[in-house]
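Minutes, structural biology subgroup

Action item carried over from last meeting: produce the structure token record for Probable malate:quinone oxidoreductase (Pseudolysinimonas yzui). EB confirmed the sequence was re-checked against the source entry. Recorded below for completeness.
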Amino acid sequence: MTEPLDVALIGGGVMSATLGTLLNQLEPTWKIAIFERLGGVARESSDAWNNAGTGHAALCELNYTPERDDGTIDIANAVKVNEQFQVSRQFWSYLVSEGLLPEPKSFINPVPHMSFVWGADNVAYLKKRYEALKDHPLFAGLEYSEDAAVIRSWAPLLIPGRRKDQPIAATRIPSGTDVDFGSLTHILIDGLVDKGASLHLNHRVTGLRRSRRTGLWKLRVKHDVGSTPKEFTARFVFVGAGGNALNLLQRSGIREIRGYGGFPISGQFLHTDDPALVRRHSAKVYGKASVGAPPMSVPHLDTRVIDGQASLLFGPYAGFSTKYLKTGSYLDLFAALRWHNLFTFIGAGLKNLSLVWYLVTEVLATRAKKIRALQQFAPTADGKDWRLITAGQRVQIMKRDADGKAIIQFGTEVVAGGDGTIAGLLGASPGASTAVPIMLDVIAKCFPGKKNAWRPQLEAMIPSYGGTLSSDPAVAQSTLSRTAEALGIPA
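Output recorded by EB:
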């Protein structure tokens, strides 16, 4: 019998790559295997063109700072997301120092982060948001302006053609970044393979059950080119299969996945690599979402740097498909239906009719309407310079809250078996940008007995491990400066 794997990673995306790299640093002798259903890693959610919301640090994403009923701004989620991104930056910096990420510019580049709004109410909101964040140590350097000339100097495409009497405002942080998680995934997985991990491309996991006799997980794996299905055994399994994680966790039979469902949302972006346009815009500019729109549909005009080449994206334009993966099946949604989650699907759908209607209107939107949405950001934009591309598929979590009510939850959630031998990740944004803290959560839930032995190495890789940067402004400043220097980006 083949020696069991210590770790089986299902899915060749940034989550599996991150967890595998962490575990390899903690236990270099462990036997790790990665199973990817496609012919290359990072081709689904982690691919640069499928993962358009990059470098999430809550510097500009307005959905992380909602306005309370009393008119004040709630910054708790923004601080949380920024803390998480700083954990990722610390780990990447450590890998650079160890020579495991040889060229940071291949995956991270400086791109200022901006918020931009129009209309008196939105301007008042953005001013309050600025006041609430500007003195926080993780948002140092946040700038605010209502002056069209200043905003034009930050992002020239936003102002020409706009009515001069229109109230506008923007915030800007020059130290923002753009992250190519497709490139990062390739580097990390190449590093794992160099250290002895096995990579199985075109291998789809069709069966996942735990042996009552041995306690090992049995993975039935089908090679898509037609070979006889193989069987692997593993002591620990991580399901990092994007939207397909729900279906695989259901097949595992763990009780913890009961009641969960998945609501798929597809998306499109307008894209241009016209040199004249790209030269005039170097920023990630986020606006406010439409009423009824999910948080992941916040409109933004983004500079992207992929394979060293800059281009612009605008969107997203949300849509609906019953696929759970961009390369999946239209039967994915129906395959996820179970007796224990049927009322979750029904209840969440009935409670989110505004979301359903929003998706219907988005699906029916013409190209002309999509260009008009772009022109709200860049009034002089010409549709002939932009082409429509299809982004990755996202599957939002459907579950029951503490009161037993069905909800759609935006964000990510780790679902782990009670014995810690299996875990999977459900949900979407901010996702990849917070991959490291999410995988630290997996480690904490699944390897509690290793906590004390692993702590020194975890603290060496992530100095803020177990604490927060925002609790000490001096530590926050020194950490941001140190990681910026290591990654070659502005502090």
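Discussion: Residues 76-97 form the longest helix (22 residues).
Next step: EB to file the record with the rest of the batch.
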